[in-house]
Structure formats: structure tokens, C-alpha cells
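Late entry, evening session. Most of the bench is empty. Finally got around to the prediction I had been postponing all week. Sequence below, unchanged from the version circulated by S.P.
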Amino acid sequence: MVDLSNYPYPAYEPNKIAAGILAGVIGISLIGWIAQTNCKPRRLIILLILSHLTIFVELVLRAALPSSTRTTRAAFTATSVLLAVGQRTIILANYDFLTHVGNLKSSFSRCIIIGSVLIALVSAILMIPAGMLSYNSDTIDRSFRLRQVSAAIVLAMTILFYPIWFATKTWKDMKKQAIILLIISSICCMIVAIYLQITSIPDYYVDANKDEYWFYIFQFTPIAIALLTWTILHPRRSLAPPIPQQ
């Protein structure tokens, strides 16, 4: 039988030095993103700034909070929300990028934007009762079921991105940098989504929360790669119209 006596808190002690260094990496990426940013595209700018900030703050809290504070309901809820927002905003940025390429119909663009935002909100809302139920031993099963549904919705969003990308035919009008950006970003988001789906199963949740390196390998690293890719292949360059052939 799975020992859930420590659920939902992780059993490991965070490496404060590693968290501090990695917070610096995300901070540098954030500065690079803002330095290249102009007024448009506004939604992409906001989404990626929000993603950078939430991941940066989560790492700072991981590095700064003592063990006694880290295992409180408020601290755990705050760090969980920050991670969830950081991942979901990257997924939304992937979808939003499609609406800025080519001559996509405005109705199709609105469907992509509104649909992706609503689905992301539903997955986030499901995590609220999942979190509340996780502190009562009698309702842990329901907490995991809600967690599984929420993770499945996020995973579905990362998978559906590819047929939607193909259906919009925006790839025909994209520069090479834009295609590389979306491939890397979407794959990174999918890796995190698969990891969260797996760890929504009690046995794997407990195993994954015994050692911090599982978090860094399958959750932080893909998110960091995605954010750094967005900064390096900034829409200021990747969304620029290709140079016409002579």
C-alpha cells in the first residue's frame, strides 16, 4: 500500500543553492525577453513575462523558504500555483503564436485564443478542489482523481496543438526560426504534461516526491528550455516577414 502520510508535500529537502542559481538563469532570460520586446504582439509579451516571473518566484521561494515554512499549506499552495501558471502560459503562448502568422481568419483566431484559454482555466480550476481535498486522509482519493483529470486536460492541450497547427496551415508562412521555436516549446510543454499525468497516480506521485532531481529533470528543465528558446528566437525576429526572393 502506498504511504500517503506526507501527501501532498514533497519528502525531499530542496537544494537551495541549485534553486538560487537556476532562478538567476530564468531572471537573465526574463531580462533578455523584455529587452527585445516592443508593443506587439501584446498577448505573447504578457504570457511569456508572466511565465518567466512565476517560475522565477517559485525558484526564489524554493531557495529562500525554511523547511518549517515550506511544508505549510500556504507555501505549498503558492509554489504549486506558480508552477501551474508558468507551464500553462507557455502552452497558451504556443497557441497564440499561430494567430499572428499569415492571414488566418479572425473567427478562427478567436476560436484558438478563447478555446485554449477556457481549457487552461478549466484544468486550473480543477486543481483548486484537488488541493483542498489533499489535506484530508478521507478525501485523498478524490484529490488524485481531480488531479488526474486536470493533468489529462493539459496533456490533451499539448497534443491537440499539432493538428491545430497543421489545420491552420500557418507553417507555410513561417520562418525557419518560428518553426524551430514552436517545435521546441511544444515538445517541452508535452514532456511536462506527460510527467504531471504520470505523477497524478499515487504510486508515482510518492516516488517522484522522494527526490528533487525528478522535478528538475522533467518539470523545470523543459520549462527552462522553452523559456530560453522563446528569448533566443524572440517573436521580434521569428514573426518578422521573410525576405522576398529576388
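Two things to note before I forget:
The two ends are 69 Å apart (CA to CA).
The longest helix spans residues 140-168.
Will write this up properly tomorrow.
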